[in-house]
């Protein structure tokens, strides 16, 4: 069997790399579901505020409809080799009710302020409850780097 050259990163490095990507990446895949309409997945711009992911979508979009009905979501950064998956519950705010600091940070990052648009928008905030991160097969073991909202310093022992 040929080696891929991938070196398994320690948990602290994996966490640091994940946090760096959350600050620098622009797009995130958002997966939602609705009891009547089933699963839905879209890419959205996002902002990481150091604790939560902030996104914005049209107030009448399928994503907005799903989040209002079922707040559990999964998020994924758009790289199939350097995988980062987040899971949590979405909290939503109409554009007129969003905390000003979050809306202003979003507008500053993207040069677009949904509050100034004609239609109504929904801001979505997700505080991750779990985060998985891995680069290739050598990192599958230990890929959970956050559990129950707490960053893990060490991997659980065992297989």
From TrEMBL:
Domain of life: Bacteria
InterPro entries linked to this entry: F420H2_bilvrd_red/Heme_oxyg, Pyridox_Oxase_N, Split_barrel_FMN-bd
Source organism per UniProt: Streptomyces nodosus
Pfam family, one: PNPOx_N
Molecular function (Gene Ontology), one example: coenzyme F420 binding
Positions in coiled-coil regions: none
Keywords: Oxidoreductase
Protein name per its UniProtKB record: Pyridoxamine 5'-phosphate oxidase
One CC-aspect GO term: cytosol
Pyridoxamine 5'-phosphate oxidase N-terminal domain segment(s): 28-134
